[in-house]
Protein: MADS-box domain-containing protein
Amino acid sequence: MVSEKPATGRRKIKIEKISKKNHLQVTFSKRRAGLFKKASELSTLCGADIAMIVFSPAQKAFSFGHPDVDSITRRFLSGSPSPPSSGLPQLIETRRNANAHDQNVELTRILDHIEAEKKYGEVLDRMRRADRSRCCWESPIEELELHELEQLRGALEELKKAVAKQVNNILIEPTSSLPFSAVNGGGDGGDFAAKLEIDNASSAALHFNNFGYAQKIC
Amino acid sequence: MVSEKPATGRRKIKIEKISKKNHLQVTFSKRRAGLFKKASELSTLCGADIAMIVFSPAQKAFSFGHPDVDSITRRFLSGSPSPPSSGLPQLIETRRNANAHDQNVELTRILDHIEAEKKYGEVLDRMRRADRSRCCWESPIEELELHELEQLRGALEELKKAVAKQVNNILIEPTSSLPFSAVNGGGDGGDFAAKLEIDNASSAALHFNNFGYAQKIC
DNA sequence: ATCCCTATGTATAAGCA
DNA sequence: TTGCTTATACATAGGGA
Structure:
């Protein structure tokens, strides 16, 4: 028997150009993400600096750099002789996080966040509609129309999911008692990640608009 | 008994700088190899061009390019004028290919993340549209410290729950009241709110929509 | 393009050679 | 540093929404 594949799971593929354009794009996206993640992990784990430039099949360029492409490139250049274009504008400054470790952590977070960003774009869009004129969520919820509330809820769902994902990646480790603790405030992060279900409307006090910190930002 | 570990076999590790130098070195080697492999697969599968430069913790340089680092970097450079490298490591996306050959070849060229600009433009565009109204979520999540993230997560959790609940309430009671104003009086909420004060460093509002280049939009 | 899900294919953390 | 082995943690191909 040829034994059909009832499996919906992963299947082995041959490493050769994917013919189905459709498929190819999906694969590109997924793998690109995975690759990116791995790169950031490598830099975090080993403290290695990495610069990467990728051109998608559609010639769209993507780049990644830790700490940034420029510095890596420069260093690379200074190590070898033959810089035809050695004078690049470089406006890289030390970011607020002078701490390398923090940067690494941040990097990872950002990595995972890239997807969230997109999602967020949609969210923002929706939010704006439901928001009308006030700044953020300042306006009392009472003033929102029902459908607006629904949208808001949807937006929050997305938002939360996104954040959860990120946070989850950063502080999931239980018993965090490592050198990392310097930054990590505690270990309840993992717990949280698992419980990010929205429906648990228990007592949640919510005061969203005035978390106290939001206002000044506006 | 402390339930001994079946020991042999992969163990989960935390993504943070490896302390044991020994370990770090091994890990670096292995992961680097894996990274290149995946890169090559990606390039083969999707026909993408990739350039990559990696500095080992010992500052040893490794590079990989498909078809070669030079051409990629050049293309990258000519593609954009000046990088918006603000303070974040611009990790747009990454992908690595190796498929071919040189991996440990020291090359000379400038890698510029100008491409980030494109992405940046996109982001800006999107943000611009969704911006205007909501600004409190402005601070890039990338800038949040871990503990801030925890708070953020808490805030979101509450927020979401609250909204969900609210919507629920309204659905049941057409009489829109202002439950929220009072709800937040709870100890939980209060406490939470109080803790939400974040350092200026990262105006803790949540919001992640920019890869890091968007902070000044608001 | 992104999310979810499932069943696998793979990459790999430790150890030891 | 590179290989081999084991047992596992992760990544991801397909397919659907």
The first helix of chain B runs from residue 21 to 46. The mean pLDDT of chain B is 53.
